[in-house]
Amino acid sequence: MKNLLDIQNLKTYFYLEEQVLKAVDDVSFSIRTKEIVAIVGESGCGKSTVALSILNLISSPGKIVDGKINFNDVDILKLGNKQLRKIRGNDISMIFQEPLSCLNPTLTIGNQILEAIFTHKSTSKAQAYKDTIDMLKTVGLPDQERIFNTYPHQLSGGMQQRAMIAMALITKPQLLIADEPTTALDVTIQAQILSLLKTLQRKLNMSILLITHDLSIVAQVAQRIIVMYGGEIVEEADAKQVFVNPLHPYTEALLKSVPDFKKGKDKLEVIPGSVPNPAEFPTGCRFHPRCREADRICKKVKPGLFEVKKQHLVRCLKR
Ligand SMILES: Nc1ncnc2c1ncn2[C@@H]1O[C@H](COP(=O)(O)OP(=O)(O)OP(=O)(O)O)[C@@H](O)[C@H]1O
Ligand SMILES: [Mg+2]
Description:
The strands form two sheets. An eight-stranded mixed β-sheet has the order 6-7-8-3-9-10-12-11, with helices on both faces. It has a four-stranded antiparallel β-sheet with strand order 2-1-4-5, with helices on one face. The protein has eleven helices and twelve strands. The protein is 31% helix and 24% strand. The longest helix has 18 residues, at 187-204. With 319 residues, the protein is α/β, with parallel strands linked by helices. Adenosine-5'-triphosphate (ATP) binds next to strand 2 and helix 1.
């Protein structure tokens, strides 16, 4: 299958007064047509910065300092604002953890979806209304005519999330970027939204980049998993491989900190130490201060990301 998105050697840094935060530090990966890829990793490892870079939405003090982001073989980083606006919200849509941060409180749900349609397509009012009602139904909202006329704050958290998904998908994007889309929701609603995303992926033939700090939610959804640590990819493989045969000590540690992942395990293991400061990464392997397998070499030599098994990449000197 063809690559829809291809990111090569992306570096996105934040230039603060006293220091430079290397939030994304030489990241390369791709997403194929109709593929669901997840990026996982602890807070601050650079997940959202990758997402915002894809839409070229990094603003000062942040800067994309290097790399290529090819979408349908066009380098997004070389496009002007007008061409970018055509892609954002149309070919690539994004949803976030907090629906209220992206829904307009002064517009009804229906009117904001209509606005999204008219921004990108020339459609008759009657057709746009029909498409909106259909989409509200597709995302599982009941009583669509009533929801159409409802304001965001009148909906529950789960319903707001569905409304935001409806708005993101109304233009039938080729890529949906979902940044922690279920983090603010309780567990049952979380599962519903994830299974909705999976159903919609098939229905609309789109690709999804799912970003989360929570490994347990990606198991049933993603086909491929990318694990990030300290601004870098440390492991990338087929989702099943990551769960059955994780190769990076960090991925192993992440898995052990997931509740219910291993049945009969009543004690969760916390990864010792804390995430590295992107202004001052450790020498050698960035994970070495927290790694139980680290030795002298790991402190000195920075490992590259290598394919150690078929389509299974890992950044570790011990593998
Ligand atoms: N606008 C900004 N200005 C300054 N620093 C930033 C900005 N955005 C992100 N950073 C820094 O870049 C690093 C990566 O942040 P990012 O938000 O990408 O992490 P994340 O993996 O999405 O974390 P989380 O799981 O908490 O959402 C962090 O050190 C963060 O403080
Ligand atoms: Mg984030």
